[in-house]
Model the fold of this input.
Amino acid sequence: MPAEPVAVVGIGQTKHVAARRDVSIAGLVREAARRALDDAQLTWADIDAVVIGKAPDFFEGVMMPELYLADALGAVGKPMLRVHTAGSVGGSTALVAANLVAARVHATVLTLAFEKQSESNAMWGLSLPIPFQQPLLAGAGGFFAPHVRAYVRRTGAPDTVGSLVAYKDRRNALKNPYAHLHEHDITLEKVQASPMLWDPIRYSETCPSSDGACAMVLTDRVGAARSPRPPAWMHGGAMRSEPTMFAGKDFVSPQAGKDCAADVYRQAGITDPRREIDAVEMYVPFSWYEPMWLENLGFAAEGEGWKLTESGVTGLDGDLPVNPSGGVLSTNPIGASGMIRFAEAALQVRGQAGEHQVEGARRALGHAYGGGAQFFAMWLVGAEPPAT
Amino acid sequence: MTRYEAPYGRDIAVVAFAQTCHRRRSDELSEVEMLMPVLHQVLEATGLRTGDIGFTCSGSSDYLAGRAFSFTMALDGVGAWPPISESHVEMDGAWALYEAWVKLLTGQADTALVYAYGKSSPGEVRDVLTRQLDPYYAAPLWPDSVALAALQAQALIDAGEAGEPELAGVAARSRRAAAANPHAQLQGEVPRGEYHVRPLRVSDCPPVGDGAAAVILAAGERARELCGRPAWIRGMDHRIEAHALGVRDLTRSPSTRLAAERAGAFRRPVDTAELHAPFTSQEIVLRRSLDLDDRVRVNPSGGALAANPVMAAGLIRIGEAAARIHRGESDRALAHATSGPCLQQNLVAVLEGEADAR
Done:
């Protein structure tokens, strides 16, 4: 029996900000969930199961917070699953929820991811004081900067490429009412003059620390037929993992990322991603990851990704818009960031992305990664149901 | 026996199970070192190699490990190269098994490796578990896991549904059964001890310890190739209750009842039940919710009262039930896992062996 097709019929986000002091953790997640239900014109009673994801529990200081959030998410009397796959978790969570529908275990599932980073300090939360590791990585930037330098050295990319990505994404964010950073007076010169944090990554080329949640309602064919708005259909989804460190690991273009993309493209029947995909929401926490992932995901040949960025191909009006929402560089509630990528891809093919809508987007890729560039989750969504 | 028809279009079975010898402390071992032997055991039992596994899923907790992303270290032990299809739940491994079961049901994979581990020894697990509670109204009071279980036990006593002698009976039977379980941490005669938190005495509470477990799942014919008598998962479901203890009737477990109904547990009687009841009083609550009478062998392994490696203890219940089917000691078994204070969240799986197995 072939798997049940999966449709996205409801999407909700909070307005992402540095600190949501006006709501509890429960209040934050409920806000996103309510918006997703409203979008689908469904009620809590229509939901069969809840799948929730977030990054490390230390970020809020609550162990397994899904237990406490069961009431706020209408999960009492229902199944509730909690996923944690590091930074890719928002994507993985959506895929776990999608499998419940694909396997026909449940008809309609609410999936949600969040982070309330104002409850702690994520940078130091990620700087592990444990034996046998470098004593001070100073956050994710300290971990990833050497790999960015390796990319620059390997490809000979001009050192302005990172600032171009940041300038583009921060301007895209101005068209997204939910984005955290709305820097109306941003200029390329300001990005390039911002302080160097982890060479070659400047302050304006890093993601913010955000409070936010994102929710989606996933359903089967019957549910999609009742949807008041056009659904987004899942055409492919996959996760891949590889170890943190080992001899021969390519940190610049990890094999797990290539394999994950290849699996998704195979499921979706994509043979030329550059031509066949209309919009990409990729996980770019530091500017240089845009050209790096363009190569890893097969949109550009090895060593050529930066040329797409430099020539404007990835701009909102380019022929392969990347992060029309403003991306992780403009909004980063870590545990939710992957799901925001997945949801923004779905918004594009539903034609619901508002001011940052890519004209005529029919197929879009949502991408997330995490850990030491080792966990990958992706999905490809389309405006049409998948061919079965 | 008539051939069973898979309710979701695909038959999935537990084909291998392994667990550590659970111990009070394992200071000399990292989580990865503790986990590696059980991973090797389930792979050897099936003749599979890491590269043959279609999907891998694990359960563990950063709060026990005391570090963010602790599960990434375990992944190194799995040998995720070339890259693997893999996921992780911040829950007991029983829910990792559930995620893997769903993955196999979709047809995206034919085999799955599931593992879970937890070391309670580095900290005070009673205190650590208070961090699971509502962070605004309950956690600041630090009500620990034993105190909350004692509230539940007292509610049971106040309702006239059990007395301290019944609790003592559960404790004694569990530790007696554990005498035949080489992996158990507490075996044989265990003194009742002082009140830990009234009405719970030391013997009503689980031992604190470290441990790991691993399971391999396989679908259809693949399961028959890998195991002489697969433990077929006839149904599996899990449900959660409200978090605030004040709105719950602690003498009942409606989420267990509902999960069991959804898993098809009441269609025919089971001969064995492995219940994840860390406290004696919780076994009584669960037995009632599941209609288990004296004809059912409850916790022949000794249950969580004999070994309770947090995050793995629920997966071990499924593994123990499956292993009895593998050995021909059970034909239809119920396995249960719990999470959260006072049985807030519960999972029920129904496993069966085939009468005509080779």
Notes: The first helix of chain A runs from residue 25 to 40.
